[in-house]
Specification:
The complex is a heterodimer. By secondary structure, chain A is an alpha/beta fold. Chain A is 33% helix and 28% strand. In chain A, 49% of the residues are buried. By secondary structure, chain B is an all-alpha fold. Classes of the chains: A alpha/beta, B mainly alpha.
Chain lengths: 291, 314
């Protein structure tokens, strides 16, 4: 059974189409990065997955209909919306008590062990914690839940580099075990490149690109082209060209590596570069953007 | 993979699946109510403060109590009993009124506040249904606040009784309080009246929860203005006040609807036990207003549950 299965997932707000018939299948044990510009429909898609918004089309998460079955679904799904959703009046100990009280799969000792490695005191109120500490607290709560799907919507928004790095390290080392599934959206794509197993670009409510990270690495090549080979390189139709230190850096899609080897330095592009190439203002998918 | 799979291995928490304990169906409800108490300390602090104010006021008169009691004993029977009872009634009314206000503002904020501070996304990330969430909030004004009111009023009146006994002991008048104040009966009336009030006021709390789940801002205005508007239109169009009188009856009639009421002329000094003479559960339970009110309350609550389901952060 796939963890998430969507067919023709559609959501409109008045005349605005937020999701335009998305087909999606995420198997268990994957870490999917959902990447897209603001207003692309990422959050709407996640909200639909989590039962926070009604939708048209077919959508099953762990075999359940999220909109009609949210409370049951949440026994097996966790999500961190962003760092600012833990109630500010709550004490850390109360957060532990409450989640332990309502969640059948919460392991309090695990959460306490995680918190013990941070500077968070159980007597503190959430409003007394720094943004990074609130994220740590939320992560501690979520990681102590034996869930099958974890959804992260901009989980590291507004955190400094140290906290961001720690966040993903903890997630990979202490949580992810290849039977769980993680779906994450973020604008800090460079930080999750090494984390993901699957990549999806979304824009205007549609999936623009969908591949595994293996496919990504096989398909896309970035070449820092020697000035002498410029014309040769152009002939191979790069999907994107940018200038850096006076040299052209070209991004190729599905061009054999051996054809490119002679043109200059070869490397795997970053997700961010591919994002710009696919979604940037002069690209096909990004060009329709009205703003 | 540059996301250091080799750093701090000693810190890793064993990711073994935990045994899933079956949860009693009532546990999410229980913890949801507890969480309301954590967030809204006014639920118990406000009545306690009102009790302290009442006790403070009573304490100030305590040194004049022997003289006041002498004066009271010179009156005719009904006024005598009234004079002795009044401080106890005032204390009870102060606490009840405080709790009523707390209940109103609690309901108005409960489903609005969680959207305003975005914490609704946290609550919704847990396996607690919208129905459980809304019912736990309804539970506060319908059950928790009446119980707290009862306990605090009884405790306050007991302290007042002990205080007055101590003050009156030297003058030998201590026994008059115990003889003339029908305290057990007042306590029973309070308990019964709190139950009838809660049921009678259910549509009020249902309405406030509905507005709270619906309004984007200015929940208080949305809660109040429609009723004022209807009252004003009725007055202007028909020069009648049925609607506003019905509203006032709904807001203030919670005790009267449960008792046999004896009307006295305005300003008559009559103790409450002479006004609400008998418990009348039959009259209460056969009052169509009660059942219509409960039906309307149920409709409001169903609507509030549905709204909570589809509403996100503001």
């Amino acid at each position: 059974m796939p963890c998430i299965e969507a067919r023709g997932l559609r959501k409109t707000f008045g005349s605005t189409v937020a999701l335009d018939g998305i087909n999606l299948r995420v198997d268990e044990g994957r870490i999917l990065g959902l990447i897209g510009p603001n207003g692309a429909g990422k959050s709407t898609a996640l909200n639909a997955l989590l039962g926070l918004t009604p939708f048209e089309g077919h959508l099953k998460v762990l075999g359940r209909d999220p909109w009609n079955d949210r409370d049951q679904l949440m026994r097996e799904v966790c999500f961190i919306a962003d760092v600012a959703v833990l109630p500010r009046w709550m004490r850390v100990s109360q957060a532990l008590d409450y989640v332990a009280g309502v969640h059948p799969r919460f392991d309090r000792q695990k959460a306490e062990a995680f918190l013990a490695r941070t500077e968070i005191k159980q007597t503190s109120k959430v409003r007394q914690l720094s943004k990074g500490m609130v994220a740590q607290l939320h992560l501690a709560l979520v990681m102590a839940i034996d869930a099958r799907l974890l959804v992260l919507d901009e989980p590291t928004l507004g955190l400094d580099i140290l906290y961001r790095k720690q966040f993903y390290d903890s997630l990979l080392n202490d949580y992810f075990d290849h039977t769980r599934t993680i779906v994450v959206t973020t604008h800090q794509v460079e930080e999750i490149q090494g984390v993901l197993t699957d990549l999806m670009f979304i824009n205007h409510g549609r999936i623009v690109l969908e591949c595994t990270m293996e496919q990504f690495e096989a398909r896309y090549v970035e070449v820092m082209v020697n000035p002498d080979h410029l014309a040769e390189a152009e002939a191979l139709k790069p999907i994107h060209t940018r200038q850096m230190f006076g040299r052209s850096i070209m991004l190729f899609d599905n061009v054999p590596h051996e054809d490119l080897a002679g043109l200059g330095e070869i490397r795997t592009p970053s997700i961010a570069d591919l994002f710009v190439a696919v979604m940037g203002p002069e690209s096909e998918a990004g060009g329709q953007r009205k703003n | 993979m540059n996301t250091g799979s080799n750093n701090t291995p000693e810190a890793s928490v064993d990711p073994q699946p935990i045994a899933v304990q079956p949860l009693a169906a009532t546990r999410p409800f229980y913890w949801s109510v507890r969480r309301e108490l954590w967030e809204n300390k006014s639920i118990y602090m406000a009545p306690l403060i009102a009790a302290c104010v009442a006790l403070f006021g009573f304490g100030i008169t305590a040194f004049r109590l022997p003289q006041l009691r002498m004066n009271a004993l010179a009156l005719e029977s009904a006024r005598q009993r009234s004079a002795i009872e009044v401080p106890y009634d005032i204390a009870a009314l102060m606490i009840m009124f405080t709790v009523f206000i707390v209940g109103i503002f609690y309901c108005l904020d409960s489903l609005h506040g969680e959207r305003r501070d975005r914490s609704i996304l946290f609550w919704k990330s847990l396996p607690v249904s919208d129905r459980t969430a809304v019912l736990s909030k309804l539970f506060v004004p319908m059950a928790l606040l009446p119980v707290i009111t009862f306990v605090v009023v009884i405790a306050t009146q007991l302290i007042m009784l002990l205080l007055s006994t101590a003050v009156l002991l030297p003058s030998g008048l201590a026994g008059t309080t115990w003889n003339l104040l029908p305290w057990p009966r007042l306590a029973a009336m309070l308990l019964y009246g709190l139950v009838t009030s809660a049921l009678w006021e259910a549509p009020l709390f249902g309405w406030l929860l509905l507005v709270s789940s619906w309004a984007k801002r200015a929940a208080f205005l949305w809660a109040v203005l429609p009723w004022l508007a209807i009252s004003a239109i009725e007055k202007l169009a028909f020069d009648t006040t049925y609607f506003s009188r019905m509203l006032v009856h709904r807001l203030t009639g919670g005790f009267e609807v449960g008792f046999v009421v004896v009307k006295y002329p305005k300003g008559a000094h009559v103790p409450i036990v002479d006004r609400l003479t008998h418990f009348d559960p039959l009259k209460f339970l056969t009052n169509p207003g009660l059942w219509i009110g409960l039906l309307i309350a149920a409709a409001f609550i169903v609507a509030a549950v549905r709204l909570r389901r589809s509403r996100g952060p503001l």
